[in-house]
Amino acid sequence: MKQHTFINLMKPVQDKMYRLALRLLVSKEAAEDATQEVMLKLWSRKEKLSSYNNVEAFAMTVTKNHCLDQLKLKQNNNLRIVHSNYECGESSLQHKVEVQDDLNWVQKIISNLPEQQKILIQLREVEQYEYEEIAEMTEMNETAIRVALSRARKKIREEMLKRHRYGIKSN
């Protein structure tokens, strides 16, 4: 495989790889390093890439595994979630502040989820992968993915409701 063929094949996937790495490692620098490392790994396997049914799923799996290895090595102790994909039109400053505050709370809640649920939330809710693709990437069955996502969403919903009801007495 020639360099330009590899670049054309991997360019559309590279942003997704970075976003997954950012979700797991949180530090922009660590995510950039991880993406670069994975690209090097994929380049070293360039001749074998054509044998994979879904190169994108393979690249995402390699990225996930690399990031989890980095976390296990505890090289990234300064981790915090910084992922905001939200843009809204013209709205009041108060509304923008409230939305940003809610996003920060959701990110904080997600950061406290188990690793598996964090990965699944990133792949399904942020990257918009189908369950079948996620199953291929994570080597989980679709039912387990749906259950884990349901639990993660429920936890996020419960924590946000707690936050919004704080100080309000119910009769």
Report on the structure:
The model is unreliable at 75-89 (pLDDT under 50). The radius of gyration is 18 Å and the shape is globular. It has helices spanning 3-25, 28-44, 55-72, 93-111, 115-126, 131-138, 142-165. It has 171 residues and is mainly alpha-helical. Helix 1 packs antiparallel against helix 2, helix 1 packs across helix 3 and helix 5 crosses helix 7.
Looking at the structure, what is the overall shape? globular
Low-confidence stretches: 75-89
Largest sheet: none
Q: What is the average of the pLDDT values?
A: 83
- The portion of residues forming beta strands comes to under 5%
Order of secondary-structure elements? HHHHHHH
Number of separate helices: 7
Rg to the nearest angstrom?
18 Å
Which structural class should the secondary elements be placed in?
Answer: mainly alpha
Give the proportion of residues in helices.
Answer: over 70%
How many strands in all?
Answer: 0
Pfam family, one: Sigma70_r4_2
Domain RNA polymerase sigma factor 70 region 4 type: 104-156
Domain RNA polymerase sigma-70 region: 11-72
Family: Belongs to the sigma-70 factor family. ECF subfamily.
